[in-house]
Specification:
Elements: H1 2-24, H2 30-44, H3 51-73, E1 79-81, H4 91-98, E2 125-126, H5 145-162, H6 170-176, H7 190-199, H8 220-223, E3 232-236, H9 241-248, E4 253-257, H10 262-265, E5 267-272, E6 282-291, E7 297-302, E8 314-318, E9 334-338
Parallel strand pairs: 5-8
Antiparallel strand pairs: 1-5, 2-6, 3-9, 4-6, 4-9, 6-7, 7-8
Helix pairs in contact: 2-3, 5-7
Length: 339
């Protein structure tokens, strides 16, 4: 009897092993994937310098596509993954190029929090419908997420305080801001960006100082014509989604998240509930919140990876989870500019 039980156990483990490997990656015919690859290259304008580079990138593309297909084939997934502009990059390459958040190691700054006594907020809110969010931008192969996050929050409060939605310059921050952690494409921090805008007495428009996705020398002539100004910034109390909700209900807010997982790289649609930790490495902007048709509460987030990623450049991330840090650490480190 013991021998039969052991054989049955071995059989069950073998079946589980096969199932697990199929959900991790699904082998697809090479010809089928190559056809997808050629179409993808045309769609995103990818041209490789050598045949060897094209072949090596195809291997990465194939692995990514197989993982995406396997994930989407699994039942009851609340969100989907998709082939986007980053499909020929390994996760390590992608993180190195796009996730440039650099949080200082010193003690976090303590500020006032003007929304602490807020008692009533809308059940759902989308600052896009209020005209306080500019179209999705693309940081390119530059670790300037911190600049895009800070600028989006500044654009939002400028609209709310002046009635004018102005696309402001991330490149001015990349080139001119060297406040503590801010090092252009090598990474930076939203709060340092806010401090730069205050000390600089404003920030100019994107039209005046356009984005190049590369480090450059500070153009003081372009910098000298500010179009928007802030007086300072405040931090949202850490690890408190309720307080974060109070802030987002009143203005777009810069938030730090852990965006290192494969599922985040290829997020396509739905409410993201995916695997992620709390190693904060990416700056984005919370521009609203709501509840999906299945009842899942979410944060509405503006990213800076172009419109091919996510829901036309945005992502809905699960809100109100058990962990006080929030999904991907979204409640750990949030701040907003004040006017």
């Amino acid at each position: 009897m013991a021998v039969l039980d052991m054989k049955f156990l071995v059989l069950v483990l073998a079946i589980l092993g096969i199932w697990a490997s199929q959900t991790t990656a699904r082998t697809l015919p090479e010809e089928f994937v190559m056809q997808k690859y050629e179409q993808w290259m045309i769609q995103y304008g990818h041209v490789y310098r050598t045949i060897a580079e094209k072949e090596s990138r195809f291997k990465i593309f194939k692995e990514n596509v197989e993982r995406i297909e396997a994930f989407n084939d699994a039942a009851n997934q609340p969100y989907k993954l998709g082939i986007n502009a980053f499909a020929d990059l390994t996760n390590e390459e992608f993180r190195a190029a796009r996730n440039g958040l650099k949080i200082p190691f010193c003690e976090p700054k303590i500020t006032s929090f003007k929304y602490e006594n807020v008692t009533a907020v809308p059940t759902a809110l989308d600052w896009r419908t209020k005209g306080a969010v500019t179209p999705i931008k693309d940081q390119g192969q530059c670790g300037s997420c911190w600049a895009f996050s800070a600028i989006a929050a500044t654009e939002g409060i400028t609209k709310l305080s002046t009635g004018k939605l102005i696309s402001l310059s991330e490149q001015e921050l990349v080139d001119c801001d060297r406040t503590r952690e801010d090092q252009g494409c090598e990474g930076g921090y939203m709060e340092d960006a806010f401090e730069f805008i205050v000390k600089n007495k404003g920030i100019t428009t994107e039209k005046t100082y356009p984005y190049t996705a590369a480090d450059g020398s500070c153009n003081t002539k372009k910098e000298s014509s500010p179009a928007a100004d802030i007086k300072g910034y405040e931090k949202v109390p850490a690890n408190n989604e309720k307080e974060l909700l109070n802030a987002v209900a009143n203005q777009p807010v810069s938030v730090s998240i852990d965006a290192s997982d494969f599922s985040f790289q290829f997020y396509s649609s739905g409410v993201f509930t995916g695997a992620c930790g709390t190693e904060l490495d990416h700056g984005v902007t919370a521009i609203g919140y709501g509840k999906a048709v299945d009842g899942t509460k979410y944060w509405l987030i503006k990213n800076s990876w172009g419109t091919s990623w996510g829901e036309n450049g945005f992502i809905r991330m699960e809100r109100g989870i058990d962990a006080k840090e929030g999904l991907c650490g979204i409640a750990m480190d949030a701040s907003y500019p004040t006017v």
